Amino acid sequence: MDLKLKVWRQKNPESPGGLVDYDATGVNPDMSFLEMLDVVNEGLIEKGEDPIAFDHDCREGICGSCSLTINGIPHGPQKAIATCQLHMRHFENGQTVVIEPFRARPFPVMKDLIVDRGRFDQIIEAGGYISARTGSAPEANSIPIPKQTTDRAMDAAECIGCGACVAACPNASAMLFVGAKVTHLNSMPQGRPERDRRVLKMVASMEEAGFGNCTNTFECVAACPKEIKGEVMAQMYRDYVKALFRQAIRPE
Amino acid sequence: MVGALWIASVCGKERQRERQRFDKALTLRNMSIWVELLRSSIGKKYIMAITGFLLFIFVIGHLLGNLQVFLGPEAINGYAEKLRSMPLLLWGARIGLLVVAALHIWMAASLTIENRRARPEPYQLKTPIQATYSARTIRISGVIILAFVIYHLLHFTFLVIEPDYATWTDSAGRPHVYKMMVAGFSNVWISGFYLLAMLLLCLHLSHGLMSMFQSVGLRNPVWARFLEQLARTIAALIFLGYASIPVAVLSNLIE
Ligand code: HEM
Ligand code: FES
Fold first, then answer.
1. CATH architecture for segment(s) A117-132+141-249
2. Which of B247, B242, B236, B241 minimizes the C-alpha distance to B204?
3. Are residues B29 and B149 both part of a single domain?
4. What separation in Å is there between the alpha carbon of B204 and the centre of ligand 1?
5. How many Cβ contacts (< 8 angstroms) between chains A and B?
6. Looking at the CA of A34, which ligand is closest?
7. Is B123 contained in some domain?
8. How far apart are CA B60 and CA B234, in angstroms?
9. Which of B198, B175, B176 lies closest to B245, judged by CA?
10. Could you tell me the pTM of the whole model?
11. Residue-wise pLDDT tens for chain B (255 aa)?
12. CA-closest candidate to residue A186, choices A224, A227, A238
């Protein structure tokens, strides 16, 4: 199959970018989207042109490296997958495909389709961990945890930190990401002792980075390759306000 | 021994440093809970939701008051007179509403400015995946409602637009609210603007009434669907309630 690509090209963070037309010819429908770009890049290299820069690593939907806004949707039109898992059979022969980076002020474009998502790492550094050494895996059920609680924490822990939530949000808000981390760690007994400082610091770091504010459109949830649920944000809001009140009454 | 002491002291210092960093993260931002609520993204969402809810309560109360027009001049003029006879309550409610509305608009403006800043370079192509029309237009519907509220107050409360209304009294000497409403809505343009504003209020609330539960952390998958339907239903009922008055006047059901 053949496709018409419109790809965002940008030399570096400072220079302005723009969409450039490319023809992707002889695309195999069984290829992944990234493999299709690999083929286009081989053609560009043969012609002595600069290949299209894009992020990728595992190519099996678990690392969170790949990004791309495809026809206006982060990770493309298919539900619950990352760009690396998107197959070309979901496109039609002759279709025009617009490929842009994830866009948000805290995610500056480094080159072409690669953005710097280091702000997410800073949010994790602010509180996305458990300080105490928890040792190796304990005897099962030595700490009784309700099934619903572990399910909630495990669902939230699926987040791979790709940033599609920010890219999809009309306000470039990172609340689904931060909500997932807060819910994951605050729900479990090992994470509870630090729950107040965790949510206060992670939210402070999120705001300092310049992400926008949620207006509850749930575009993030729809774009998320791991189907993180909107309730993680609700839990973060509750935990945040509870932490504020607890800190005001009885500072840590 | 010395080694253990040294390790303990380093750990202690490290813990102290960690604590200081934590305190700084909090005190940096003043940690006064009220300042924090007005300044943090999540605090603003809570204020947005709580003020939105209070405005919604007012919208319901105001609707019930207005619907008394269907009971005839006696009922609505008497109701208005009763409100006026309790100046403390009336002015308390007015000032309270003003503060609530000001907070709602202030937070809306502040959140919107921050959100604009968060994506300086727009997408060339952005496809909404599932966001509802009402969610995407919440700001513009809010601004038009504000314009309407200002006009509405000038029209019926401060009588700036129709100063004649001030001289209209009924047989009991009370301000003739009934006559005012019928006269106002007999004008097709006024009724039209009113209906448009109510449609936008309906739009605003069909997202807002669901949204406010999420903003205070009270939405979960168990009742999310139900909440969405409830919000839409209540918003539609509010529209029908308010719209019934100009429609009744224009079709001469009340005169
Ligand atoms: C009778 C008047 C109004 C009522 C009953 C009302 C009600 C609400 C409710 C219930 C919400 C949802 C809160 C949340 O998402 O947590 C909301 C959100 C919002 N309102 Fe209003 N509102 C009114 C007037 C206005 C006005 C005059 C403006 C602006 C000038 C405005 C702007 C907004 C905006 C921008 C939001 C979205 C905020 C967000 O979700 O973060 N509203 N409103
Ligand atoms: S490349 Fe690892 S998730 Fe797509």
1. Orthogonal Bundle (1.10)
2. B236
3. no
4. 7
5. 147
6. 2
7. no
8. 10
9. B198
10. 0.91
11. 455 555 555 555 655 565 555 555 554 444 678 888 888 999 999 999 999 999 999 999 999 999 999 999 999 999 999 999 999 999 999 999 999 999 999 999 999 999 999 999 999 999 999 999 999 999 999 999 999 999 999 999 999 888 989 889 998 889 999 999 999 999 999 999 999 999 999 999 999 999 999 999 999 989 999 999 999 999 999 999 999 999 999 999 887
12. A238
- Contact assessment for residue B119 and residue A172, using Cβ atoms and an 8 Å cutoff: yes
Q: Token pair 């952005």 is at which residue?
A: B126
Residue of chain B whose alpha carbon sits nearest to that of A178: B42
> Which residue CA neighbors atom 32 of ligand 1 most closely?
B142
Distance CA A74, CA A223 (A): 6
Question: What is the value of ipTM here, to two decimals?
Answer: 0.92
Ligand 2 centroid – CA A84 distance (Å):
5
Point out which residues pair with B64 in neighbouring strands. none
SS3 A224: coil
| Neighbour tally for A169: CB within 10 Å | 28
Q: Crossing angle for the helix pair B41-66 and B73-84, nearest 10 degrees? A: 130
If asked whether residues B101 and B199 sit together in one domain, one would say yes
Q: Is B55 in the pocket of ligand 1 (CB under 6 A)?
A: yes
Q: Which residue has the tokens 């390790």?
A: B7
Q: What's the total number of domains in chain B?
A: 2
Taking CA–CA distances from B217, the nearest residue in chain A reads: A234
The reply to whether B188 falls in a domain is yes
**How many other C-beta atoms can be found within 10 angstroms of the C-beta atom of residue A118?**
12
Give a yes or no: residue B238 inside a domain. Answer: yes
Cβ distance A201 to B22 less than 8 Å, yes or no, reads: yes
Choosing from A60, A86, A87 the residue with most ligand 2 atoms within 8 A of its CB, the one to mutate for a pocket test is: A60
Q: What is the CATH number of the domain that holds B55?
A: 1.20.1300
Residue among B121, B133, B138 with most chain A CBs within 10 A, to mutate: B121
Q: Return d(Cα A178, Cα A122) in angstroms, integer.
A: 11
Domain ranges of chain A: 3-111, 117-132+141-249
Whether residue A212 and residue B115 make contact (CB cut-off 8 A), yes or no, is yes
CATH architecture of A3-111: Roll (3.10)
The amino acid that residue B64 corresponds to is L
Range of the domain at B35: 1-39
Gap from A191 CA to chain B (nearest CA, Å): 17
